[in-house]
């Protein structure tokens, strides 16, 4: 998954689901630091793997899958958790906020991204683009233990770049523009996470 950081400083998050520990270590040794996992149990097992703990001390885990409220404790309890990229409701934001106050290091905030369903597909999670401002306002004003890192989307699968700019990527950028204008935020502080292995360059 591609992350846009202040436009000119991209970060590549390696989606490591289904990949064995040895592959993660190999990528880490080549300089990769950010890894994304979709499933809670797989993330818990990898993050606590003795070999990864010993050889990948600066690894940063991003949770990029759908997170159920009853599994928040498991995710927030792992070592080297860097970010939750899939906040899509006030309920989940509230649970993350409360749980981090108990499990997170004192004086720290949990980085989160708001997931937006830019393609508006029923089978995908994420808040409707029209509701992004409301959820963003809730995170900023009601969740003192969360730090808003930006917005994330999983675009419609199979889009052909030859057809022009990806509408999902344009939509996410539009959402960023809207929340910055509505809530008085600096766009440089609102990162965008979008794009997969087939379209990260366009993202």
Automatic annotation (TrEMBL):
Keyword DNA-binding tagged: no
Sorted UniProt keywords: Pyridoxal phosphate
Xref: InterPro entries: Ala_racemase_N, PLP-binding_barrel, PyrdxlP_homeostasis
Stretches assigned to the Alanine racemase N-terminal domain: 20-162
Source species, domain of life: Eukaryota
Similarity field: Belongs to the pyridoxal phosphate-binding protein YggS/PROSC family.
Entries under NCBIfam families matching the protein: YggS family pyridoxal phosphate-dependent enzyme
Protein name: Alanine racemase N-terminal domain-containing protein
């Amino acid at each position: 998954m591609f992350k846009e950081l202040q436009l000119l400083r991209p970060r590549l998050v390696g989606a490591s689901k289904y990949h064995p520990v040895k592959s993660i270590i190999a990528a880490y040794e080549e300089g990769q630091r950010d890894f994304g996992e979709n499933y809670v149990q797989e993330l818990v097992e990898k993050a606590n793997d003795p070999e990864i703990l010993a050889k990948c001390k600066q690894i940063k885990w991003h949770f990029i899958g759908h997170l159920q409220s009853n599994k928040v404790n498991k995710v927030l309890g792992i070592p080297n958790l860097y970010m939750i990229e899939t906040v899509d409701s006030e309920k989940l934001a509230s649970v993350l906020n409360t749980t981090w106050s108990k499990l997170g290091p004192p004086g720290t905030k949990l980085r989160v991204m708001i997931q937006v369903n830019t393609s508006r597909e029923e089978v995908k999670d994420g808040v409707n683009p029209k509701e992004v401002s409301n959820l963003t306002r809730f995170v900023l004003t009601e969740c003192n233990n969360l730090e808003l890192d930006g917005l994330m989307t999983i675009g419609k699968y199979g889009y052909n770049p030859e057809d022009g700019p990806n509408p999902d990527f344009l939509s996410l950028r539009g959402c960023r523009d809207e929340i910055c204008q509505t809530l008085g935020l600096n766009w440089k502080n609102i990162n965008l996470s979008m794009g997969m292995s087939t379209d990260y360059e366009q993202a």
